[in-house]
Write a structure and sequence with these properties.
By secondary structure, the chain is an alpha/beta fold. It has a domain of about 200 residues. It is about 40% helix and about 25% strand. The chain has nine helices and 22 strands. The strands form three sheets. Strands 1, 3, 4, 6, 7, 8, 10, 13, 16, 18, 20 and 22 form a twelve-stranded parallel sheet that branches. A seven-stranded parallel sheet has the order 5-2-21-19-17-14-11, with no helix packed on it. The chain has a three-stranded parallel sheet with strand order 9-12-15, with no helix packed on it. The N and C termini lie far apart (about 190 Å).
C-alpha cells in the first residue's frame, strides 16, 4: 500500500512538472510572436514626406496623405500639380521638431537587437514573422513579393536594418497575412532608399540620406529622409492606414470650434424674452374688455328709467281709468247718508205724539 501511494505521488508531481513546462513554452512562443516594441516617431508621425536638403521635388499628380516637411532647407517644388492632404512645413519650427524626432527614431531602430541576418539582403519571396532583421552588411534588395506574417497578432512589429541601401525592383510589393499593419513596419536605412516604378511598399522609411521614388510608386506609410532630398514622380504616399497620432489632435482642435455653439444658447435666451413681451400686449386687449363692461353699466341706468314707467303702468291704469270705483264709493256714501237722514225725522214725530198723552 505504501509503495502504491508513493508511486501515485511520483506520477502526480511528474505530471505537474510537465504541465508547468508546457505552459512555460506556450508563454515563450507568445513572447516570440509578439516581437519587438514599435519605434516611436514623435511628431514625425504626422508626416508622409520629410526631407533635409536641398529640396522636396515632384513631377506629376502625386498625392500625399499627410503632412510634408523640410528642414533646414525650404524648397518644395511640384505642388501643384501634386496634392498635399495635410500641411506643408518648409523650414519652420514644426519641421525642425519633426526632424529631431526622426533622428531619435532612427537611432532607436538602428540599436535594436538581436537581429536575424537576411542572407545577401534578399527579401523577395520570403515570409517573415515579427522581429528585427539585418542585411548583414549587404544592400537590402526586394524583387518580387515580401510577405509579413502577423500570426493573428495586430501588434506585431517588424524592424529592418540596412547597413547600406534599400532598393526595390519595379512592380515589387510588400503584403500582409494573418494581421499586421504598415504602421508597425520600420526600415532603418544607413544610406539611401530607391523604390522602383510601379512598386507597392509598406512601412516607414527612415533614411539617413535621401529617398527616390520611380513613376507610380505606392507607399502605405512614410518617406522620411534625415539629411537629403525626397524625389517623387506621380506617386502616392498615405499614412492613413496607420491612423497617425499627430493628425488626430488636428480634428480635436476642430471640435474646439464647437465652443461657437455655446453662444447659440445665448440667442436662445434672447428669443425667450421676446415671446414673453408679446403676451404683455395681449394683456392690454384684456383691459379693453373691462372698458366694454363700463358701457354695460350705462345701460343699467337706462333699465332703471324703464322700470318706473313699468311700475307706473299698473298705477296709471288704476288711477285714470278707474273713476268708476270712486263714483261707486261716493254713491254708497250718499245712500248711507240719505238713509240716516230719512230715519231721524220719524223718530221726532213719534216723540211729539207721545207728549200730549
Amino acid at each position: 500500500m505504501k509503495k502504491r501511494a508513493r508511486s501515485a505521488r511520483l506520477l502526480l508531481s511528474t505530471g505537474m512538472a510537465a504541465a508547468l513546462t508546457l505552459s512555460g513554452l506556450a508563454v515563450a512562443q507568445i513572447a516570440i510572436a509578439a516581437g519587438p516594441q514599435g519605434v516611436t516617431l514623435g511628431t514625425a508621425s504626422s508626416f508622409a514626406v520629410l526631407a533635409g536638403t536641398p529640396a522636396v521635388t515632384n513631377s506629376g499628380p502625386t498625392t500625399i496623405g499627410g503632412d510634408l516637411g523640410i528642414h533646414p532647407a525650404t524648397a518644395v517644388t511640384g505642388f501643384p500639380p501634386g496634392v498635399v492632404n495635410g500641411t506643408i512645413h518648409a523650414g519652420d519650427a514644426v519641421a525642425l521638431q519633426a526632424k529631431n524626432d526622426l533622428s531619435a527614431a532612427y537611432g532607436d531602430a538602428a540599436g535594436r537587437s538581436p537581429a536575424a541576418v537576411i542572407a545577401g539582403g534578399a527579401l523577395g519571396g520570403r515570409t517573415l514573422v515579427a522581429g528585427v532583421y539585418s542585411s548583414g552588411g549587404a544592400t537590402l534588395d526586394l524583387a518580387g513579393t515580401l510577405t509579413l506574417d502577423g500570426q493573428n497578432d495586430p501588434a506585431s512589429v517588424w524592424i529592418f536594418q540596412a547597413s547600406s541601401d534599400l532598393i526595390t525592383a519595379s512592380s515589387s510589393s510588400v503584403r500582409f497575412v494573418n494581421g499586421g499593419t504598415p504602421c508597425n513596419v520600420f526600415w532603418q536605412i544607413t544610406s539611401s532608399a530607391t523604390l522602383g516604378s510601379g512598386s507597392t511598399f509598406a512601412g516607414s522609411i527612415l533614411a539617413l540620406t535621401s529617398i527616390t521614388m520611380g513613376d507610380g510608386v505606392v507607399v502605405n506609410g512614410r518617406a522620411l529622409a534625415r539629411n537629403g532630398t525626397v524625389t517623387l514622380i506621380n506617386d502616392r504616399i498615405d499614412i492613413s492606414p496607420c491612423g497617425a497620432p499627430t493628425p488626430t489632435p488636428t480634428p480635436t482642435a476642430a471640435p474646439a470650434a464647437t465652443a461657437s455653439p455655446t453662444p447659440t444658447p445665448t440667442p436662445t435666451a434672447s428669443t425667450t424674452p421676446v415671446p414673453t413681451a408679446s403676451p404683455t400686449p395681449t394683456a392690454a386687449p384684456t383691459a379693453s374688455p373691462a372698458a366694454t363692461e363700463a358701457p354695460t353699466a350705462s345701460p343699467s341706468p337706462t333699465e332703471q328709467a324703464t322700470p318706473p314707467p313699468t311700475s307706473t303702468l299698473p298705477t296709471a291704469g288704476g288711477s285714470s281709468g278707474p273713476g268708476v270705483p270712486a263714483l261707486l264709493i261716493a254713491a254708497s256714501l250718499l245712500f248711507l247718508f240719505g238713509s240716516v237722514a230719512s230715519r231721524r225725522p220719524r223718530a221726532r214725530r213719534g216723540r211729539t205724539t207721545a207728549g200730549p198723552r
